[in-house]
Design a protein that fits this description.
The chain is an alpha/beta fold. 35% of the residues lie in helices and 17% in strands. β8 and β9 form a beta hairpin.
Length: 246
């Protein structure tokens, strides 16, 4: 009997059932966002996410042929996914840690050139900030509802939007807050925790790491250490609900 059959079945959260109306309202608002090429590609998102499990956070879904498409949702299995180049490392970590896994992109428009995000957010870009923030609002609702047990973020722009680079300017005003999460490095587990007291994610361990696939991916030794570290945090009961510390 495999390890997957020994783990209690987690509850499944449907992004489609809970958020398709919000996503449609963004990607059908042609007056506000129709001038973006990305808008014409519509959105894409994973549908079913395992709650209270291992979550890998990315930035954008890809668009392979750059053609106008309908919005859609897709699902991922725990292993043997078609795009092995991208998902095999998630499967490897999941099996090693013995936690089911899911993946979520923080933005929903199809694009792989992250420099385009900076163009969208440029001060002279019409409604660019609104286009990004509305999508991040949906992602934050998803995160708060699925309450991941451990989060792995392997994208620099995703770290930025989550709030890791939050700071204050000379006038004391908060900048780079974005999704509003606060992080503190926990010396006892060797990684960050989310510290927001009003969040379902309070105390959730978060691993910020380099890309897990592609040319800039972690080297083999660093990847093995990441696997060990995630397993250590999970096995040693360093994961606990926010309510336990209130």
């Amino acid at each position: 009997m495999g390890w997957k059959s020994l783990i209690k079945m987690e509850e499944i959260y449907s992004v489609k059932d809970n958020h398709h109306v919000e996503l449609n309202s963004i990607f059908e608002d042609e007056d506000s966002f129709g001038h973006f090429d990305f808008y014409k590609l519509r959105y894409q998102s994973v549908d079913k996410i395992h709650m209270n499990s291992l979550l890998f956070i990315g930035m954008n879904p890809s668009n392979l042929d750059n053609k106008i498409q309908d919005s859609d949702f897709y699902n991922l299995s725990q292993d043997n996914n078609v795009y092995k180049k991208f998902f095999s490392k998630f499967e490897d970590i999941s099996e090693y840690v013995k936690l089911k896994w899911s993946h979520l992109d923080l933005l929903f428009f199809r694009n792989t050139n992250q420099n385009d995000i900076d163009c969208i957010l440029h001060k002279d870009t019409k409604n660019g900030l609104d286009f990004i923030c509305k999508q991040l609002d949906v992602s934050k609702k998803i995160l708060e509802n699925i309450r991941p047990k451990i989060i792995v973020v392997s994208n620099a722009k995703a770290r930025f939007f989550l709030g890791l680079e939050k700071s204050k300017n000379k006038k004391g005003a908060e900048i780079h807050g974005w999704m509003g999460y606060d992080f503190k490095f926990d010396d006892t587990i060797g990684t960050y925790r989310i510290t927001n007291k009003n969040s379902n994610l309070q105390n959730t361990p978060v691993f910020f790491t380099s890309m897990l696939s592609g040319q800039a991916a972690l080297d083999k030794g660093s990847f093995e250490r990441l696997k060990w570290h995630i397993k250590f945090v999970n096995d040693n009961k360093c994961v606990f609900p926010a309510s336990s510390l209130l």
